[in-house]
């Protein structure tokens, strides 16, 4: 079977360092930190009192109040970024076969704030079961894809993938596969998360996963730094319009790049810790490049999972060194989580956008907040510390790994 080509024709982003794609890119290239004290709730009694929150976001500027109140924050982020991407793609819905346009979204948790609010309200009452009638629709993760579909009339395959922090990586790969198999003309894909809540921060604190650098929040996300002490929780999301190449060309669409491969694997090792040899990370990158028909030497940039955890960072780099061999010193590698924090189920989506923009602008976004070299990390690796670097970028890959051992890698290529 002759597989169809798939291209990216629309982008949307709502992140801790910018509420549009242009703002997000400016934040990335200028090394802006999105971390600051938590404003969502009183965090004074928590071990971690900062996060990477979305800023200056008034949902009523995008969605009428009556509609917005029926959505959890993560769904609001999904709807807003999807609207941005669809507008960017220049879709004329009168000329689309809406039966062949789908929505495949990613969310690791879903409506955590909604669930938290309802449980706290019930627990603080007299035991009478009073719940918001929108409790369940707001909480369930698939509300994001459903509401995007309803809003735009897209009747193709519509669902949400849930694989922890790899969720939107799986969503992008599924969308890619549907289109190249000829089952869709286009798909709105991406991911969102809104876990900066008492339960989110408290739960990750209990796991000892979060940085506790409360005296210097802006520099707390320190991927590959010797003194990294955990990840910084982020929120927001991003949307991408994936489209069959000939379909896009026929309507005169702007094309950012081509998506040429996707790889998925499982560590089969531990519910929260990555495999000590980076086995799953290696395998998903290897499979992604094989799927793309590219040799490792073709890759110019790796946007890493790079969460700023003591264990995870060096294990991913081990896998990269194993896969790329001598070429590894010719790569640029960076973790944009140093700026955005970790968006959990939305991470792969915003990082895919970062990789695509690196190709478009021929610029590698930096890994900020590097102060002290880690002796366990190969000093010959170009981890793009502290400043963006200009270089030729024809192929970029983006890695995302999730609790449960889920691994994804997506390959983007200049067209």
Q: How would you explain this protein's 3D organization?
A:
Residues 3-414 form the Ketosynthase family 3 (KS3) domain. Keywords: Acyltransferase, Fatty acid biosynthesis, Fatty acid metabolism, Lipid biosynthesis, Lipid metabolism, Transferase. The protein has 415 residues and is an alpha/beta fold. The protein folds into 2 domains: 7-250, Peroxisomal Thiolase, Chain A, domain 1; 262-413, Thiolase/Chalcone synthase (Peroxisomal Thiolase, Chain A, domain 1, 3-Layer(aba) Sandwich), CATH 3.40.47. It is built from 13 helices and 14 strands. Helix 3 runs parallel beside helix 6 (143-152) and helix 7 crosses helix 13. The two termini are 23 Å apart.
Condensed summary:
This protein has 415 residues and is of the alpha/beta class.
List its traits.
single chain, 415 residues, alpha/beta, Peroxisomal Thiolase, Chain A, domain 1, 10-stranded mixed β-sheet, two-stranded antiparallel ribbon
């Amino acid at each position: 079977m002759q597989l169809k080509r798939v291209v990216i024709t629309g982008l949307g982003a709502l992140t801790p360092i910018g509420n549009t794609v242009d703002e997000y890119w400016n934040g990335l290239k200028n090394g802006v930190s999105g971390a600051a004290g938590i404003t969502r709730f009183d965090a004074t009694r928590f071990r971690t009192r900062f996060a990477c929150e979305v800023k200056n976001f008034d949902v009523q500027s995008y969605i009428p109040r009556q509609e917005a109140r029926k959505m959890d924050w993560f769904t609001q982020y999904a709807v807003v970024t999807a609207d941005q991407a669809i507008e960017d793609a220049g879709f004329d819905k009168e000329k689309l076969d809406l039966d062949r346009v789908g929505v495949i979204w990613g969310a690791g948790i879903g409506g955590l704030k909604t669930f938290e609010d309802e449980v706290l309200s019930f627990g603080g009452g007299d035991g009478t079961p009073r719940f918001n009638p929108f409790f369940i629709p707001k909480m369930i993760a698939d509300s994001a894809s459903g509401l995007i579909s309803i809003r735009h009339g897209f009747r193709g395959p519509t669902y949400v993938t849930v694989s922890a922090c790899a969720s939107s990586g799986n969503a992008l790969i599924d969308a890619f596969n549907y289109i190249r198999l000829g089952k869709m003309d286009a798909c709105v894909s991406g991911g969102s998360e809104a876990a900066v809540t008492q339960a989110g921060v408290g739960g990750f604190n209990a796991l000892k996963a979060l940085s506790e650098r409360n005296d210097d929040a802006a520099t707390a996300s320190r991927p590959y730094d010797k003194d990294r002490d955990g990840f910084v929780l982020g929120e927001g999301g991003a949307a991408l319009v994936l489209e069959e190449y000939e379909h896009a060309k026929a309507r005169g669409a702007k094309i950012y790049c081509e998506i040429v491969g996707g790889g998925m694997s499982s560590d089969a090792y531990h519910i929260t810790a990555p495999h000590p040899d980076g086995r799953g990370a290696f395998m998903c990158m290897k499979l992604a490049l094989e799927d793309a028909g590219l040799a490792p030497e073709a890759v110019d940039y790796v946007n890493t999972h790079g969460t700023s955890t003591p264990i995870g960072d060096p294990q991913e780099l081990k896998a990269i060194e194993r896969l790329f061999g001598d070429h590894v010193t010719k790569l640029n590698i960076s973790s944009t989580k140093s700026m955005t924090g970790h968006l959990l189920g939305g991470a792969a989506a915003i990082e895919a956008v970062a990789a695509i923009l690196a190709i478009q602008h021929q610029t590698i976004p930096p890994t900020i907040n590097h102060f002290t070299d880690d002796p366990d990390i190969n000093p010959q690796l170009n981890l793009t510390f502290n400043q963006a670097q200009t270089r030729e970028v024809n192929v970029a890959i983006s890695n995302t790994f999730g609790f449960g051992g889920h691994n994804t890698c997506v390959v983007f290529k200049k067209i």
